[in-house]
Specification:
about 0% strand, 4 helices, mainly alpha, single chain
């Protein structure tokens, strides 16, 4: 099954490459891909490694890591609309306030993480044998 899936993936990649090569902007795509590699190696990977080192001693580090990864993914998904050029003549192209949407999403993730951490802590205290109420 892996061989079939791998072959299908390679065929789709080859087809995408052929479609890309027919375009006049293939140099722009190559520059964008090179920029993505540099961004990953120079910014994203060091940030993730640094966060991992800083979080090494935390009791709830899995929850904190998951929260940071979710926030990072949300930010990466929102980057194209956050870095868009100045407003266009067509106001329906990007009609929403995407900065506000990202901030609401990040706040929701943070609140859910705090609630989940508090729930885990309360459940851990309730299960202790020396707890007179549990």
């Amino acid at each position: 099954m892996r061989t079939v899936t791998g072959a299908a993936g390679l065929a789709l990649m080859a087809f995408g490459g052929l479609l890309l090569w027919d375009q006049t902007t293939h140099w722009d795509v190559l520059i964008w891909l090179a920029g993505a590699v540099v961004l990953h190696d120079a910014v994203i990977a060091p940030l993730v490694l640094g966060a991992g080192l800083l979080l090494g001693g935390l009791k709830n580090r899995g929850l904190v890591r998951a929260t940071l990864m979710t926030a990072g993914c949300l930010t990466l998904v929102a980057l194209p609309v956050l870095l868009r050029p100045l407003p266009t003549a067509n106001s329906s192209v990007l009609p929403l306030d995407y900065v506000r949407g990202l901030l609401i999403s990040l706040a929701t993730v943070a609140v859910l993480a705090v609630l989940l951490g508090a729930g885990r802590r309360a459940r851990g205290r309730a299960g202790r044998p020396d707890d007179p109420e549990g």
